[in-house]
Task: structure prediction
Amino acid sequence: MTKITVSVCTYNGESRLPKVFEHLAKQVDVTPEQWEILVVDNASKDNTFQVVQAYQSAFKEICKVRYVVELKQGLAFARTRALKEANSDLVAFVDDDNLLFPNWVNRAIAFAEVHPEIGAFGGQIHGKFGTSPPPYLNKIKYFLAVVEKGQHSFEYLPEKRMLPPGAGLVVKREAWLKHVPDSLSLAGRVGGSMVGGEDLEALVHIQKAGWEIWYNPEMEMDHDIPNARLEEEYLLKIAWGTGLCRHQIRVARYTLWQNIFLTPLHIFHDSYKLVSYVLPFQKKKNEETILRKIELAYRLGTFVSPFSMLKSRWTQKRVGEVD
Result:
């Protein structure tokens, strides 16, 4: 019986997928019948299909490799498609730059069997850099989906307002399909947009329904991060985009009437945090200046996020009226 589907969502992943499959081929203590790989091609324009075809043949003794195309672009749509196509109760989200440690699949299955009450869980994500990262990166590594929270498992409690990223996340298919809308407010980073957060929005819906979300340190993987993502320009964009999705995630936590009351409070709170951060801003040594600029971009994005959401919904409404 298939216990877990490892879903690899990719867009133009021709050059990245071989590394991903190389690490998937090294999985230990798991039989071919226990798992499958499902590649969701998010409308690639390169030779992704041909690359996957080659691995379908190469993996015959390892596990079944399936391939589907999701034409609607955005990681949210690709992952939803994976949930619907999966042949197992557990679905793991592996991005095309995620390199799993050899016992990752085994540890995911074992953790789910011991904790049936859990709706989703993530593991440790280590940054794999092509060059030495700047010293300040450790303070903002969460922007790059690097998660290193120690060697003990724990629950992400709702009141803590912290959740794992979608990379390396394992979800219970039932929990997702029952409680996560087919069309989330956040679609993921599409085109030049750096607004993500679709993974967190989905997890909020699962958590609200009463399912637990956990951290499992026995599941380890590397996040293959190219040098370009360590540049100041990219880090500023990712910080801005992370802040810009924050209000949508907040809205998902509450009812309509709660949001009507809480939104002005959130705007006031975000304004206060932004102003209190800007006022003492002083030019210091270069590294600290960059770090503060990145934090400022995040706080500014957070402040703008309610207005950005309203603009997006107004635009969608106008487009709907025209259609």
The two ends are 46 Å apart (CA to CA). The first strand starts at residue 4 and ends at 10. Strands lie at 4-10, 35-41, 64-69, 90-95, 98-100, 118-129, 154-155, 169-172, 212-225. The chain has a mean pLDDT of 89.
